[in-house]
Task: structure prediction
Amino acid sequence: MAIGKFLDPLKAVMAFLALVLVKWHGLPKNVVGRRSLAVRQGSLNCNCGTDPPLILGTGASGVNLRGRCAPPHGVRLACMKPGDSEATEPTRTLDPGAALYLVGTPIGNLEDITLRAVRVMKECDLIACEDTRQTQKLLNHYGITTRTISYHEHNEMTRSAELVLELERGARVALVTDAGMPGISDPGFRLISLAIRHHVPVVPIPGASAFLAALVASGLPADSFRFSGFLPAKRGQRLRMLESIQGSPRTQVFYEAPHRVKGAVEDIVQVLGPDRHIVIAREVTKIHEEFLRGRASEVLQTLNVRAEIKGEITLLIGKQEETEQRTMKTSATLRQRLVEIMAEQKVDEKAALKKVAKEIGVSKSEAYRELQRSK
Result:
């Protein structure tokens, strides 16, 4: 009995000393208890099954004193679910197979590019550029040394075939333009369609777009819009284009050259009326970025006082308003009544217009202006 009383405190002292030794010298090869913790190739593999092991240890060895496995930061135990670990997925690399990557590039500010776009251009085998000199500035900025080749509107026909041959041999080709997404008012359509016909994977790498940036900042409705590229350079074709959108229920978006934008707004005033809402977005994302918003007549006045207009231009035209719809109906009625009076009373257009103006209660000059706008 006396010996038993003496041994109980002795066991407690020995257990305490064992705990101290484990804390300062780490775990022995066989961890205390029946279960073990093996370290293999930098990762911990626990054979604890579904319940936690009853073990003692130190933080340095990856085991805590609460009886549960505690792997080092970023290491997952085999018995743990993938979601239980803080380990992050390693950086992805391009697939080894051939693919055509359509890479969006900045439209002015070099920071407007995605991390994915930079990685693709670094890891691909070849970059097809609209202008190799322009693209080289971007590549130098991000330390990209991938080989480049020209691909523009003057060699698009032959170069597309050459690039598809490279793709069929297993090359990974990135297609870029001077600014924005390939194929949007820029070269790219021929190569893209040819690659698809030859069953080459085409992978979009989204990036900046001038017309989308201008649209969202314009203040015009963006729930329904139409992008039509550049307005026709010839005035006759431009007038017909504007006439076709006169009653449009959606925002219209165009690109326009700076030396033609004033003439384009003059045509808008003539065809769509001076009260149509328009926006001119100039040099979007660049140092001299500018938005001119207002009625067509107001924007035209602003342009008329400027000696010169420079930069990349996006022209946005608001949808037709209810007041404009009523004006169109009035114009249609005026034209119809004019023709009727000329036929019935056998008078010329000038005399008929005077009678029509009197009927609808407006001056002859106002009726004439309305008639000219409706033509």
Q: What stands out?
A: Residues 274 and 297 are 5 Å apart (CA to CA). The longest strand covers residues 225-230.
